[in-house]
Amino acid sequence: MRLFTQIGAYLLLMRRTFTRPEKHTVLYTQVMREIEKVGINSIVIVLVISIFVGAVITIQTNYNIENPLLPRYLIGVTVRDSLLLEFSSTMVALLLAGKVGSSIASELGMMRVTEQIDALEVMGVNPASLLILPKIIAAMFFFPILCLLSIGMGLLGGYLTCLLADVIPPSDYIYGIQYAFYPHYITYAMTKTVVYALIITSVSSFLGYYVEGGAVEVGKSSTRAVVHSCVLIILANLVLTETLLQ
Question: What proportion of the chain, given as a percentage, has pLDDT over 70?
Answer without folding.
Answer: 98
